[in-house]
Amino acid sequence: MQKNSKRNNNSRVSDIELNSVDAEKGKNESQNNFVELLPPEVALKIFTHLDIRSLCRASATCWSWNYTIRNSDFLWKPHCLTVRAVCRREIDDDLESGYSWRVILLRNYQKSKVKHEWLSGRYSNICSPISLPEKIMYPMDVDTWGEILEAELER
């Protein structure tokens, strides 16, 4: 009879351990997605402290983060205003056209990087088109090239 009670005790212990492992597993899964556990205002406040690269990476983490970040246009506005320092005309035109801050940033981010390098004179002393790095040949409109030419003439 003692053997049966030992077996029953062992099975109870293993059942308790399994249940606690299942509980921990569920707990860990919900802890991995803290955005769903936090009030939306707190999660968004955390996301406002991310730079562009981190914000994009966070949006690729899971569906709920992507949805939250993609649909919270105010998260993109400060980054877009930073790009506006270089691409004022382009950003203002996109705002007038009714684009969201996220779309405006997508449309102008790479252009702002290239335009900034041109305007800062990084390519002023290049002697031939062969010497130009391929990454700087971003398609830009006539007005942008006019700004770059004016900056070059002032140097």
Average pLDDT works out at 79
Number of strands: 0
Element order: H for helix, E for strand: HHHHHHHHH
State the assembly state of the protein chains: single chain
Structural class: mainly alpha
Strand content: under 5%
User: Largest sheet at a glance?
Assistant: none
User: pLDDT under 50 segments (min length 5)?
Assistant: 8-29
Distance between the termini: 99 Å
Rounded Rg: 27 Å
Count of helical stretches: 9
| Approximate shape | elongated
Helix content: 55-70%
Structure overview:
By secondary structure, the chain is mainly alpha-helical. It has a domain of 80 residues. The protein is built from nine helices and no strands. Helix 4 crosses helix 5, helix 6 runs parallel beside helix 8 and helix 7 runs antiparallel to helix 8. 14% of the residues are buried. It holds the Pfam family F-box-like. Keywords: Cytoplasm, Ubl conjugation pathway. It is found in: Cytoplasm. Pathway: Protein modification; protein ubiquitination.
